[in-house]
Amino acid sequence: MKSGLGGGNNDLEQLAAMGNYGRSSGHVAGQLTTKYCKDDSMTLPEPYFFECPVLKKSPDSWYLAKETVAIFLPHEWFSWLESHDSVSGASHLADFWASHNMSDPKLAKNPIYKEAQVFLPMLLHGDGGAFQRNDSINIISMRSLLSASNVATSQLLLAAVPKACCNKSDDPELDTMTAVWEVLVWSFQHMFYGKHPEFDHQGKAWAVKSKRAQAAGTHLQAGKLRGCLFCISADGEYFQNEFKLAGASHNECCFNCKANKSDVPYNDFRPAAAWRKTIVQHKDKTPTSHPLKKIPGVNGHSFHYDTLHNLEEGVAAHAVGNAMFDLVCRTGGFPGTQEEALQTLYKKIAQQYVEQGIESSNRIKRLTFSSFCNAKSKFDNFPVLSGFKAKHIRWLVNCMAPILQEFVVEEDPYTKHRLLVMENLEGMYDCMDRCHLHMDKATAKQFKQFGDMALLHYAKCSKISISASKLAWSTTPKFHWVAHMVEQAAFLNPKYVSTYSGETMVGYQASLAHACLNGTAPHKVPEKVAWRFRLGLHLKFLHGCEEIVSDSEE
């Protein structure tokens, strides 16, 4: 009986024999890679190797050198997708474009506008993750917006580059990540035009008789489908530091308008706010000098604000944290000592979990003072949730709304605004949850109203707290970005361009990179991660894992 690994009846014996039957376990990974990853019969793309400026360590210091680095090419993943519809979702492409609002500003002056039906929309994600005590790793991946597969099979690795080997320089010839992005952009360009490149990224001919030489000039997919980079999603830090977009540490903290931290305040959420008159229509322009701007179809509207960092870990985390602080630590909340009030609140939340049928994986397991404030000096800092996953914060919104209803005092506007913040946040989540990729016109309008009102009532709570000299209801640039997110929702449901799947991918690859260390030079880690990712994906598909439907909040 075959084991399903593709090698015949003795597969299990061969696996058992690896690493000298386990006595030399350090050799197993290399032997697995040689046996299963470098098999010419495999259809998965192979890593692409190119010379890149990297930092290397000598006994005394770090120095700059040109070394070979490995990445995966987007156009080769796109070609592979043709035989995996559950990963690409290509069978739903016609429905996607039929439902899409073609007044989407990212399509203005966009070369895909006139022949959108042949373009599969792809989402790019980038972020860093800790993979050892003193280093992080930059993980870049992509997935089809239409994919029905889980993260492990739909999020396709492009690059995994440790920070330790990254040289930063204003000279693009010496900057590590610029070199990586230039190759990725070259590949994305070929994905857009739908054909395998005839030469490598430097214009050199492919090695004779190589797979890439044999495929040169042919269509990526037999059906002549092409791929467009439709959405770019990341947290605010990555947008600012990697993509060079205006961000939280800048005075002008938004690349979609002229909002700032002085005369055009980003935290003014009124309909007549000054920044609303300065909203930028990017059309065919990209508000950055990053190499991504060279990809056909990419413009300023391609960058999407996501719910995980801006809503769950932004507005919702602050709103729920302040509400909890009120109920536990301030007068007018639960009776008894603060410790007793904390236990009462947790019991109330647990009761709401049951009444609303919220899944156990979305529930918090404990609640302490440090969950929403500094336990040692409770009144010296702004309350905000801490230590919870984003999906836990999202469902705490639903729990807190009915709890706050009990504390509304007719003659106290603050208690009314506090409740309305939570109810409008709850309304936003309801709109996202009941729609797929596209919201219908009425729901998109409702989503915008909920978002605008949540921010307005939050601002009211903040103003009342300031007048009472309380440290409460602080705002950050994330709140402003949510004000733009509600506008983007008219074209794509924010839930489906969020970073949940990308962040999960970062966690997977950071763990994989950690396992690949064992004294490996940082610039060699990308190659090791690439081969092991390929092996893992190969084995998953042999066992039919691509059929697992994804959970958008993994």
Question: What features would you describe in this structure?
Answer:
- The protein is 41% helix and 11% strand.
- The chain is globular and about 80 Å long.
- It is built from 17 helices and seven strands.
- With 554 residues, the protein is an alpha/beta fold.
Please supply descriptive tags for the structure shown above.
single chain, globular, disordered N terminus, 554 residues, alpha/beta, two-stranded antiparallel ribbon, 5-stranded mixed sheet
Helix and strand element order: HHEEHHHEEHEHHEHEHHHHHHHH
Number of strands: 7
Radius of gyration: 25 Å
Strand order of the largest sheet: 5-4-3-6-7
Helix/strand class: alpha/beta
* Terminal CA distance: 35 Å
Strand content: 5-15%
The amount of helix comes to 40-55%
Overall shape: globular
Main sheet: strands, sense, barrel: 5 strands, mixed
